[in-house]
TrEMBL record:
<dbReference type="Pfam" id="PF00180">
    <property type="entry name" value="Iso_dh"/>
</dbReference>
<comment type="similarity">
    <text>Belongs to the isocitrate and isopropylmalate dehydrogenases family. LeuB type 1 subfamily.</text>
</comment>
<dbReference type="InterPro" id="IPR019818">
    <property type="entry name" value="IsoCit/isopropylmalate_DH_CS"/>
</dbReference>
<keyword id="KW-0100">Branched-chain amino acid biosynthesis</keyword>
<dbReference type="InterPro" id="IPR024084">
    <property type="entry name" value="IsoPropMal-DH-like_dom"/>
</dbReference>
<feature type="binding site">
    <location>
        <position position="223"/>
    </location>
    <ligand>
        <name>Mg(2+)</name>
    </ligand>
</feature>
<feature type="binding site">
    <location>
        <begin position="281"/>
        <end position="293"/>
    </location>
    <ligand>
        <name>NAD(+)</name>
    </ligand>
</feature>
<feature type="binding site">
    <location>
        <position position="247"/>
    </location>
    <ligand>
        <name>Mg(2+)</name>
    </ligand>
</feature>
<dbReference type="GO" id="GO:0009098">
    <property type="term" value="P:L-leucine biosynthetic process"/>
</dbReference>
<feature type="domain" description="Isopropylmalate dehydrogenase-like">
    <location>
        <begin position="4"/>
        <end position="348"/>
    </location>
</feature>
<feature type="binding site">
    <location>
        <position position="134"/>
    </location>
    <ligand>
        <name>substrate</name>
    </ligand>
</feature>
<comment type="subunit">
    <text>Homodimer.</text>
</comment>
<feature type="binding site">
    <location>
        <position position="96"/>
    </location>
    <ligand>
        <name>substrate</name>
    </ligand>
</feature>
<keyword id="KW-0028">Amino-acid biosynthesis</keyword>
<keyword id="KW-0963">Cytoplasm</keyword>
<feature type="site" description="Important for catalysis">
    <location>
        <position position="191"/>
    </location>
</feature>
<dbReference type="GO" id="GO:0003862">
    <property type="term" value="F:3-isopropylmalate dehydrogenase activity"/>
</dbReference>
Amino acid sequence: MKAKLVLLPGDGIGPEVVAEAVRVMDAIAGKFKHEWTYQERLMGGCSIDQFGSSLTEETLADCQAADAVVLGAVGGPKWDDPNAKDRPERGLLALRKGLGVFANLRPVKVHPALIDSSPLKPEKLQGVDILVIRELTGGLYFGWPKGRDSKDGRERAVDTLEYYDYEIRRVMELAFKLAKSRKKKVTSVDKANVLESSRLWRQVAVQIGKANPDTALEHVLVDTAAMRLITGPAWIDVMVTENMFGDILTDEASVLAGSMGMLPSASLGEGRVGLYEPIHGSAPDIAGKGIANPIGMILSCALLLRHSLGLEQEAASIEKAVDATITADARTADLGGKLTTRQMAEEIIQRL
């Protein structure tokens, strides 16, 4: 297979982990006789510095023309001014919108060798294998109106939580589709006791559930879901929720695996171009030190092979190599080890 991949290394540790993921992808290409063409572009804070925009029209067009997009991380203190005309996060939201990716998949699986790395008690982590699906292009982050003004002599800020039924339906249908190859259980998270948008969310979830009688559906309020992620995460199989709830819950779920550096994500839509990125941030405090954990980025590339290119054997080979590396007690600093970013990637490549 030949594939065109756009690389957006971004800010902070992004370039470091993307570079190692490319080495793994090249090893896969050599092993399975594929050919990848890479196109590297700026996005995020580095793009603001260079072009005055966190995401240029040219970069978005290149991403839309690719087979898949690999993103490192964006943001950092340098661009944190809330009053700035542009911020790295705006580029990320615009990229998701421009690619039409409406569902963010975040698998959270606890490796037996890393149970002691999590702050939870080991018995809480037995059998944890969760897929969180977060709606990505609707809700509070995109609703209108939003802004700040003055009312009755007081400063006011407004954000709008808005959902259409079709936005809920398509992500819910994806959740049920993916659940069928797992434990056939979908947990829908909302706040239907308070929010009108959540009542619509639950209404649509019930409709999709009735159309899929072979898959169990349960409804959980978001505060209860946050609690149960810590007190009993093994009860969850596929969790699907709206944009802001998913943003918060997926970061909470990341501690189950012992480190945010371990976890990948895939953002998918109705188009063919997927967006693949680790769930961690740009970690400016360790940028340039060569100690970042590249596993989240490498596993994101495994998801790329599976979902965008349809290469299941290749995806599984990366995941097996990562598992074998962890089992062999290879660790970066976030997991209490001493391996550099490059050394961790090398350990994985040797096991492909």
